[in-house]
Amino acid sequence: MLAARKSSERIATKLLRDSGRTRERLLQAASREIYRSGFQSASLDTILAIAKVTKGALYYHFKSKEELGYTVVEEVIAPNVRGKWVRPLQSGKDPIDALIGAVQRIPVRPVDVRGGCQLNNLSQEMSPLDAGFRKRLAIIFDAWREAVASVLREGQTHGSVRRDVEPAEAAGLLIAMVEGYGSLAKNAQDPKVMKAGIRNIVDWLRSLRAPGNRRRG
Amino acid sequence: MLAARKSSERIATKLLRDSGRTRERLLQAASREIYRSGFQSASLDTILAIAKVTKGALYYHFKSKEELGYTVVEEVIAPNVRGKWVRPLQSGKDPIDALIGAVQRIPVRPVDVRGGCQLNNLSQEMSPLDAGFRKRLAIIFDAWREAVASVLREGQTHGSVRRDVEPAEAAGLLIAMVEGYGSLAKNAQDPKVMKAGIRNIVDWLRSLRAPGNRRRG
DNA sequence: CTGCCAACATACCGACCAGTATGTACGTTA
DNA sequence: TAACGTACATACTGGTCGGTATGTTGGCAG
Question: Are A6 and A93 members of one domain?
Fold first, then answer.
């Protein structure tokens, strides 16, 4: 108990002195700069300028640029994907409706479309070059696919999703479509491409509904 | 006539001295190194080492790294895409068969899958950062989509493709699927992902066939 | 034989890169 | 209050980058 009190005081003090945010500011700045220009081309000096942090602070919290990148994957990108593609599917709603909702919530502002998908960008760049990135990014992709497959399986047991749909295959196809249209839209630098893609994906999702289970349109 | 003879002699001499290949070797080496590590991270010194050419020769033929990259797009990547996705569709075969053939000819060797798509790789990296790349790459994507849309339209007039298919939309979806699965496979570094994707794309292509026009399977 | 130019080759440059060595302010502990 | 460790800040390093300035070679015209 005394030890516990000491420990909590210690943490409180740390948070006070640190403002509790140097590490977090570094991760956010790194995430943004990596998103903008890729991991390899992201300059530490640029990241430090964005975060308004010095090199000493960076290398106090992370032992290398690589480790900073890994931490961005684990503490920024992974939670983002979970928040958009895992938790919303566990809402208990109709599976197809939940999936359509997630697809329709894909950002289509010009700035988002032009930048592409955080997860896919980094994965495309680093998966072939660095096993540490590949492993961490693969975990995110797997969780994404499993969340989609899981909600489809659940829909099949409740009769709202066609039985002839193979959940794992359909989940892979959904993700391929999302990333594929994301790529095309980024390449074209045009939100219209993404909007058209979302319509096509939604149409396809509707085709997965079991007959006699059609809801709204 | 005398001028013409002089000129051809001159070219022959040039080719002899040059071995006719310094520029070509540079383009091939640049293409490979850009494919491997991206344009920004591709080092000129590495490209020169691969091509066995010196910096003087490089800057005699190209005025900057940027121009070298642009030329790779125009003289290496564009012909590759034309050879795989434009010419094969103009063969006069059944449109759906031609499309299925093109999809099934997508390379699935580990080395190809791990490296991803030349066109998409470069486009993902450079389209948001450089208008020169974006313009040149967009031309290739447009030609690809137009070739697919064109063969679908042709199929509709001949009755082999469903009339309710919107050729431009379907072409976009095909490309999104191809690039999407290519991305997933590259991310996973696993040819099985690409093979599964090809099966799904082929199944989808078959669904575009007009009823009563089913050929083999 | 001579001057000339295309087609390189070599040596070098300042800028920037990731990373490090060292200094320091400040809250805590004894 | 003195020693100490945390959480940085500053200044610097060797290496690599794209790009350039200058040298060299060899065929060919005059």
Answer: no
Sign of CA dihedral B171, B175, B181, B184: negative
Range of the domain at A214: 70-217
d(CA A25, CA A16): 15
pLDDT tens string A35-64: 999 999 999 999 999 999 999 999 999 999
Q: Which two tokens stand for residue A132?
A: 């540490």
A115 at B interface, C-beta within 8 A: yes
Q: Are B122 and B34 in contact (CB under 8 A)?
A: yes
Same domain, B106 and B212: yes
A205 and A114 housed in the same domain: yes
Task: Output the domain CATH number for residue B40.
Answer: 1.10.10
Give residues with Cβ within 8 angstroms of B94, minimum separation 6: B155, B160, B215
Enumerate residues 6+ apart whose C-beta is below 8 A from A15: none
Residues A147 and A79 in one domain: yes
CA angle B205/B210/B216 to nearest 5° reads 65
Is A26 in contact with A47 (CB distance < 8 Å)? yes
Contact between B188 and A121 using a beta-carbon 8 Å cutoff:
no
Q: What tokens were used for A11?
A: 């943490």
Last residue of a domain, one of A62, A79, A105: A62
State pLDDT tens for residues B107-132: 999 999 999 999 999 999 999 999 99
Name the domain boundary from A62, A81, A104: A62
The arithmetic mean of pLDDT across residues A187-197, rounded, is 97
Tell me which residue has tokens 């489809």.
A152
A35, A169, A177, A187: best to mutate for the B interface, most B CBs within 10 A: A187
| B38 and B80 within one domain | no
**Together in a domain, A23 and A129:** no
pLDDT tens digits along A152-173 = 999 999 999 999 999 999 999 9
Q: Please tell me which of the candidates B141, B169, B178 has its beta carbon nearest to residue A200.
A: B169
Task: Provide mean pLDDT across the span A137-148.
Answer: 98
- A77 and A51 within one domain: no
Provide, in whole angstroms, the distance separating residue B217's CA from nucleotide C20's C1'.
66
* Res. B212 pLDDT band, cuts 50 70 90: confident
Name the domain count of chain B. Answer: 2
Cβ B196 vs Cβ B180: under 8 Å: no
